[in-house]
């Protein structure tokens, strides 16, 4: 019996991705009832856990910060595909979906993943240590991207309402790609050491022994299964989205909550991976995942939306409202004060988590 249990626990990360894709194929484009929605939710959670496992295998093979970069970019590329698909199929009713989802991703990563990682790491080790140079550069890039893409449309005057003109949207898309590309080159180039853990312990296996790096074949298999699992995560999130929208409407909540829920589902792999890294005192990896995901979410979504706007009907609302602008501003200020010392306690983590709670509460009660 023990052997059978070990076999199951060893094989489940290999089995879940194809199973989740099969469930996605069966449920795609169908109206699912309550029971099937619960089954899809369970499979979705399994796909998230499998994605985290395979992301860690790939990260162990390629090293940091490439591992965090691969997971952040893979999730975001598929998230962008989901947003564009929903906007094209949803028509004018989804005019603000990109803004709501991207802003939710920023708040969930910078306040949620970052705050939770700092809290978990400092609670276990007393003080969470990380590189202020790399983390500060990442947060500055996130702040610039968010301001160019989400704040400026509220104040421009070429078009009425919180939207860019065609020329402004093209500029924002190009600027987003340039900033994101410059950051990736910095993170993986001569200044790579700014994004490496301060305390570089050896990865260990489930029994606590030092784990040898996986072979190239194992890493390649995990990379393929990671992409498969992430496709399933985003696809199953879309399958669940009608049920989410109905629940939001029945509860009388603002439609922007749909973007929050979609971002939360898509960001689950990064959240779990970041918390596990924080538990091993590798806070820098957690911050790479948090800020890298926020950066990729803006830097890749805005250019994709700019291209997709050719086929979109109705306006493309990107500008944040006054409440969201204030929340973004205080998040950036608090984030800078958090990362400048290169160390943090539970207080800093708690402050970010309270800001996340404020964002969620005000999304429900605007």
Write up what this structure looks like.
- With 366 residues, the chain is mostly helical.
- It has a single domain, classed as A middle domain of Talin 1 (Up-down Bundle).
- Strands 1-2 form a two-stranded antiparallel ribbon.
- Helix 3 runs parallel beside helix 7 and helix 4 packs antiparallel against helix 12.
- The N terminus is likely disordered.
Quick take:
This protein has a single domain, classed as A middle domain of Talin 1 (Up-down Bundle). Helix content is 76%, strand content 1%. It has twelve helices and two strands.
The residue ranges in which pLDDT falls below 50 over 5 or more consecutive positions are: 1-9, 202-210
How many discrete domains?
1
Rg, Cα atoms, Å: 20 Å
Which term fits the overall shape?
globular
Mean pLDDT: 82
Q: What CATH architecture would you give?
A: Up-down Bundle
Please identify which CATH superfamily we are dealing with: NCX, central ion-binding region
- Portion of residues in beta strands equals under 5%
Biggest sheet overview:
2 strands, antiparallel
CATH class: Mainly Alpha
CATH-defined fold name:
A middle domain of Talin 1
Q: Could you say which structural class the secondary elements and strand pairing correspond to?
A: mainly alpha
The number of distinct β-strands equals: 2
Fraction of helical residues: over 70%
Biggest sheet strand order reads 1-2
Element string (H = helix, E = strand)? HHHHEHHHHHHHEH
Counting H and I runs of at least 4 residues, what is the number of helices?
Answer: 12
Subcellular location: Membrane
Pfam families: Na_Ca_ex
GO molecular function, one term: sodium:proton antiporter activity
Organism: Rhodococcus wratislaviensis NBRC 100605
């Amino acid at each position: 019996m023990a052997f059978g249990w070990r076999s199951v626990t060893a094989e489940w990360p290999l089995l879940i991705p194809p199973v989740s894709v099969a469930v996605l194929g069966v449920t795609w484009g169908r109206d699912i009832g309550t029971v099937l929605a619960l089954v899809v939710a369970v499979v979705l959670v399994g796909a998230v856990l499998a994605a985290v496992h395979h992301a860690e295998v790939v990260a162990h093979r390629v090293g940091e910060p490439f591992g965090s970069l691969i997971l952040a970019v893979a999730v975001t590329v598929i998230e962008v595909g989901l947003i564009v698909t929903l906007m094209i199929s949803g028509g004018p009713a989804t005019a603000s979906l990109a803004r709501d989802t991207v802003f939710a991703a920023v708040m969930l990563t910078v306040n949620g993943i970052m705050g939770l990682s700092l809290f978990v790491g400092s609670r276990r080790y007393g003080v969470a240590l990380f590189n202020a140079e790399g983390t500060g550069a990442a947060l500055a890039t996130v702040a610039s991207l968010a301001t160019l893409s989400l704040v400026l449309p509220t104040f421009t005057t070429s078009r009425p309402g919180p939207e860019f003109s065609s020329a402004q949207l093209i500029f924002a898309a190009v600027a987003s790609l340039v900033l994101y590309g410059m950051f990736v080159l910095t993170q993986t180039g001569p200044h790579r050491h700014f994004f490496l853990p301060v305390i570089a312990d050896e990865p260990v296996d489930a029994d606590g022994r030092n784990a040898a790096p996986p072979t190239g074949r194992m890493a390649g298999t995990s990379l393929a299964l990671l992409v498969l699992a992430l496709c399933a995560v985003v696809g199953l999130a879309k399958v669940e989205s009608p049920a989410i929208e109905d629940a939001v409407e029945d509860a009388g909540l603002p439609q922007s909550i749909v973007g929050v829920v979609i971002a939360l589902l898509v960001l689950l792999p990064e959240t779990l991976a970041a918390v596990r890294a924080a538990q091993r005192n590798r806070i820098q990896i957690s911050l790479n995942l948090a800020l890298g995901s926020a950066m990729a979410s803006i830097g890749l979504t805005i250019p994709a939306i700019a291209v997709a706007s050719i086929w979109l009907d109705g306006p493309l609302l990107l500008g944040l409202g006054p409440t969201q602008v204030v929340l973004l501003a205080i998040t950036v200020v608090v984030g800078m004060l958090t990362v400048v010392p290169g160390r943090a306690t539970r207080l800093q983590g708690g402050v970010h988590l309270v800001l996340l709670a404020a964002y969620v509460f005000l999304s429900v009660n605007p």
